[in-house]
Amino acid sequence: MTARSAGFGARLAEAVLARGPLCAGIDPHPGLLDAWGLPRDAGGLEKFALTAVDVLAERVAVVKPQSAFFEAFGAPGIAVLTRVQEHARAAGALVLLDVKRGDIGSTMGAYAGAYVADGAPLTADAITVSPYLGAGSLAQTVELARAAGRGVIVLARTSNPESAAVQNALLPNGKTVAQSIVDEVARWNEGVAPLGDVGVVVGATVPAGELDLGGLNGPVLAPGFGAQGATVADLRRVFGPGLPGVLPASSRDILRHGPDPVALREAVVRVQESLAGQGFADGGIGPISGPVLAT
Ligand SMILES: O=C(O)c1cc(=O)[nH]c(=O)n1[C@@H]1O[C@H](COP(=O)(O)O)[C@@H](O)[C@H]1O
To answer: Could you tell me which InterPro entries the record lists for this protein (predicted)?
Structure first.
């Protein structure tokens, strides 16, 4: 076993132990800006995102800004995103930047240089990436991220209803595409302690029994919890009783309680309590000891 005290997996394990497993998304949808009484401009975006990060980042282990909603405002939006990332990290949360990058290997290296390599200007602790140009196209990104103590979360079985057609397609070796992605990620995490730096996305909305995550040794980001309909009971149904590596992710279902910071704070605490009440990540996060998805 390689001890990597400064690795993303280790830092994530520590954060989950201290704060619970919830990953709070910051998705400044235009409709949410309206609901918060804010203008649909860079000023409204800034007020929304900084209010959200100030409330969320001191409570949750992971904050996940969705880059698209910031990019939509051009350079001023990116400037706001940078401040959100700085505020979140200063408040002790890990930043998982949701950018879902996917390209040929050499271009992926440039994305790593933007977000997770040493000296990356848009510093995140981890980014979401798409493996659908082939898992090998991500190898350089994984290497650069890990060398900087950062991580990568790879889409495997996503929460959207369209995902099954591609991700459950069978390969000639009899595995689904999603399972083969999980197995590739497991190889990157082999021997890393206490937890690998490369995670997968498995939506909380997917049917139980599709995937074997037993050898993953890494985090499982589970979006679809909240606004897309999945409940705490669904998380249990999909991921089984152990759940040590699962990070339930929710954005709109928490953010809709703003702009009042007190109401927003109460909403996030309620979600954290509902997860704790179900024994989520009881005793922290760690390698999963058996198949996680119930059959
Ligand atoms: O990578 C993601 O975060 C992600 C993967 C996935 O399978 N499904 C999914 O919804 N997401 C993201 O998670 C967030 C979900 O938002 P809510 O539905 O508002 O909780 C959005 O930012 C999505 O882009």
So the answer is: Aldolase_TIM, OMPdecase_AS, OMPdecase_type-2, OMPdeCOase_dom, RibuloseP-bd_barrel
Q: Which of 23, 27, 62, 99 to mutate to test the pocket of ligand 1 (most atoms within 8 A of CB)?
A: 27
Nearest to 126 by CA among 101, 156, 104: 101
Where do we find the tokens 């910031």?
70
Catalytic annotation present for 47: no
With the most atoms of ligand 1 within 8 angstroms of its CB, the residue from 100, 158, 231 to mutate is 158
Q: Where are the domains of the chain?
A: 2-277
Report the alpha-carbon angle 65-107-172, nearest 5: 95
Residue nearest to atom 9 of ligand 1 (CA): 223
Given this model, what pLDDT does residue 191 score? 95
Q: Check: CATH 3.20.20.70 for 2-277?
A: yes
ipTM greater than 0.90: yes
